[in-house]
Design goal:
This protein is an alpha/beta fold. The protein has 13 helices and 15 strands. The relative contact order is 0.13. The structure holds zinc ion. The site of zinc ion has 5 residues, from loops. Zinc ion binds next to loops. Transcriptional repressor of xylose-utilizing enzymes.
Length: 399
């Protein structure tokens, strides 16, 4: 008789399921797990023992008894290790050190004097080393690193093009993996932001979600059925370059009338430079003026809100999402853009499509990308919960 099942593989899968159940429903008992996933109690107990041995699960005080002996409750040990998330932005890096549940322990903004890959890589290395110096004792130390890049990243983690950084074909992976280990994830910043908002932010309950990153340009991360939609070449989501005005302004991509030439932070600032020709107002100053009732500022944000609504109506019609989350810089002006934006969606999208679609502003503020980036190595680490990986007494394994 041919053996069709791989016992080791099945055991590994079951262990991941047990760990996921504990993470999602903690605190709970072994009997609760058994009831929840339908594995027998002996198997659950043996897998839980292994997870306790590998420091990923801890036992805590007894829970409520339903008659007999009080059961011991299990918790996910979110401090078994840590991850670093980095958002490479246009003027600086935002870096976070998080535990395995995404709680921020350390945060750092590093200004970038220049954008050459060498300089940015050096700042990334320095930041990770600084984080690891102040790392609490833990069995696994830093388990991995995630980086969000404002550009196209292929499925081999190579940055194919990042126009705002003037990068073409930059390989961050090779030079960082040699120092920090292979659990290193490099992705488009909007994809990372989408994952961040799905796991920890406004999109936790949504299965079909579009995260819009609106800064100098407009990018998006599209989550379909709970998973990121990556497209054939990993380049999906460039919604900023959908044409919304046939003869509109020239875009940096070469096309005319791209959505981001009309509704991004840059579009807003270009317009502001014409309205207030004697002073260079930034987004924060324009927001402040609008909150004070300055009519030109109010009108300008209203215009941008309406233009945002045009593209959003297209996305609602095409993808019929449950939720659109607007993140990055322009979300700072959310309350001022909202009315015109919602009105335009209402006027321009198909009624059956928008019925169940909601629009929200990012819960994680400007941290969506950094937190989403940090979650990628955590997901990878937890999918291979192997006690052999734990390096006892080493606070910074892999460094
Ligand atoms: Zn374009």
């Amino acid at each position: 008789m041919k053996i069709t099942g791989d016992q080791q593989l099945i055991k590994k899968m079951n262990k991941t399921i047990v760990l996921d159940t504990i993470r999602q429903r903690q605190p709970l008992s072994r009997a609760d797990i058994s009831a929840a996933i339908g594995l027998n109690k002996a198997t659950v107990s043996s897998l839980v023992s292994e997870l306790i041995d590998s420091h990923l699960v801890t036992e805590m005080g007894p829970g409520e008894s339903s008659g007999g002996r009080k059961p011991t409750l299990l918790h996910f040990n979110r401090s078994a290790g840590y991850a670093v998330g980095i958002d490479i932005r246009v003027n600086d890096l935002l870096a976070v050190l998080v535990d395995l549940e995404g709680h921020v322990l350390q945060e750092k903004t590093v200004p970038l004097a220049d954008f050459t890959p060498e300089h940015v890589l050096e700042q990334i290395r320095k930041t990770i080393r600084q984080f690891s110096k102040k790392l609490p004792e833990s069995p696994y130390g830093i388990v991995g690193i995630g980086i969000g890049v404002p550009g196209l990243v292929d499925d081999k983690s190579r940055v194919v093009s990042a126009p705002n950084l003037d990068w073409n074909q930059v390989d961050l992976y090779e030079s960082l993996a040699s120092e920090f280990g292979p659990n290193l994830h490099i992705d488009n910043e909007a994809n990372a932001g989408a994952i961040g908002e799905k796991l920890y932010g406004a999109g936790r309950e949504a299965q079909n979600l579009i995260y819009l990153s609106i800064g100098i340009g407009i990018g998006s991360g599209i989550i379909v059925g709970g998973e990121l939609y990556r497209g054939t070449s990993n380049f999906s989501g460039e919604v900023g370059h959908m044409t919304v005005a046939e003869n509109g302004p020239l875009c940096r991509c070469g096309n005319r009338g791209c959505w981001e030439t009309l509704a991004s932070e840059k579009a807003l600032l270009d317009r502001a430079a014409k309205l207030w020709s004697d002073s260079h107002l930034d987004l924060e100053e324009i927001i402040q003026l609008a909150r004070g009732g300055e009519p030109r500022a109010v009108q300008l944000l209203d215009e941008i809100g309406a233009r945002l609504g045009v593209g959003l109506a297209n996305l609602v019609n095409i993808l019929n999402p449950e939720l659109i989350v607007i993140g990055n810089r322009l979300s700072l002006a959310g309350d001022l853009l909202q009315d015109a934006m919602l009105r335009t969606i209402e006027n321009r999208s198909l009624s059956y499509h928008r019925k169940k679609s909601g629009v929200a502003f990012a819960n994680l503020g400007i941290r969506s990308t950094a937190l989403g980036a940090a979650s990628m190595p955590i997901t990878m680490f937890l999918s291979e919960p192997d006690p052999a990986l734990a390096q006892e007494g080493s606070p910074s394994a892999g460094l």
